[in-house]
Amino acid sequence: MFTFPGQGSQTPNMLQDIPAYVERAAEVIGVMPRDDELALSSTLWTQIALFLKGTAVADEFMKQGVIPYFVAGHSIGAYSAAVTAGVISFEDALSMVWRRAQWMDRAYPAGYGMGIIMGLTKEEVERIVVHAHSDESPVYRSNVNGELQVALSGTVEGISRAFELAKQRGASKTIHLKVPVPSHSPLMEGLTSELSGMLERIPLQDAKMTYLLNHTGRPTRSRQKIAEDLAVNAVYPVCWHDMTTVSVESGADCFIEMPPGHTLTGLLKQAHPCLRGIAVDETGMEGALYLIRKWEAQAE
């Protein structure tokens, strides 16, 4: 299974080894993508960089004969997953990512973001959010990354208030993410209609491999269901824990995380410690290919 990370995993200079994809992107969006430290503090360039990096590395794996049975992207990573599965072209997906990132960047220029609460369940976090939320400083429960790792989205003030309550109730850790917009919350509702309109004009194909839906955690190869997922995944929480659990139940036993970062591999090992996971950022492409072929030979 190929997994594709979301916003927060970005690192400066992450595009330096994929110049051909950067040039292709510049032709589509009309400007050269950036990956310097200043640029990656913005949603606009971060989402473009993550899409390009994940798509490029997945392409290289498939050129080397490594074809996944499943693909799953976390938030913006869903677009790379859809390209890898053959549902949407690189150019059309990039145009959507560009529009998605522009909308987010303009809609929430300051004072909003996302955070993580560790050590509490989804239900416990939802009760905290009820007390922390206000009309002036909204905060929402968003992504469920693991049984005891739940994300928040909303105003920085609302998230900080929720963090205080979480610590009082036994949370082991709270983290403000490097995500300056309230993704995966009702504050993103205005984006869905725009992306849906774009998808109506884009040719799509059924997936060549099983795609895990962000907003439900369910598997599918249906182009209609994947299109819906791409349109709404900024509004609904990402059901990452469900996505990985369903893929394991369906037979996935080796997970390869596209760069940058290793967050998804860490979550996998917490939930399923006996499964094989590779973070390409840690092993490099050659190291990942060596491990994959070694495991394939052992299975024969």
Automatic annotation (TrEMBL):
GO terms for biological process: fatty acid biosynthetic process. Keywords: Acyltransferase, Transferase. The keyword Zinc does not apply. This is [acyl-carrier-protein] S-malonyltransferase. It catalyses: holo-[ACP] + malonyl-CoA = malonyl-[ACP] + CoA. Its EC number is 2.3.1.39. GO terms for cellular component: cytosol. It is an enzyme of class 2 (transferase). One of its GO terms (molecular function) is [acyl-carrier-protein] S-malonyltransferase activity. InterPro entries: Ac_transferase_dom_sf, Acyl_transferase_dom, Acyl_Trfase/lysoPLipase, Mal-CoA-ACP_Trans/PKS_FabD, Malonyl_transacylase_ACP-bd. Residues 3-295 form the Malonyl-CoA:ACP transacylase (MAT) domain. The keyword Repeat does not apply. PANTHER family: MALONYL-COA-ACYL CARRIER PROTEIN TRANSACYLASE, MITOCHONDRIAL. SMART domains: PKS_AT (SM00827).
